[in-house]
Amino acid sequence: MYEAFDSFLKVETWHTTHPMDDKRFNVALNQVVRNPDFDPEKMAEYFQSQFQVGPDDETHPFHEAIRRRQYQADAVRSFLHDIGEA
Predict the structure, then answer these.
(1) Packed helices 63-82 and 40-51: angle between N→C axes, nearest 10 degrees
(2) How far apart are CA 19 and CA 48, in angstroms?
(3) What is the pLDDT of residues 40-62, one digit of tens each?
(4) What are the extents of the domains in the chain?
């Protein structure tokens, strides 16, 4: 399921907060966020596996970006759940 993010992760700037990166992330997230098996933590683990980032490797340059995307996915998932769409 998390392969839906592959095209997003292949963009050199995926880890930035550029509006185009946000859009690419949201497009990918939309493909999976309503799946009952979707888990933002597992999504983050998938991202980590793509870049060999350890779960506690706070020194890795992508650590914060992965956490930020995890929190964003969690917020969207919670919102959809609260309004009955997830």
Answers:
(1) 160
(2) 22
(3) 999 999 999 999 999 889 999 99
(4) 2-82
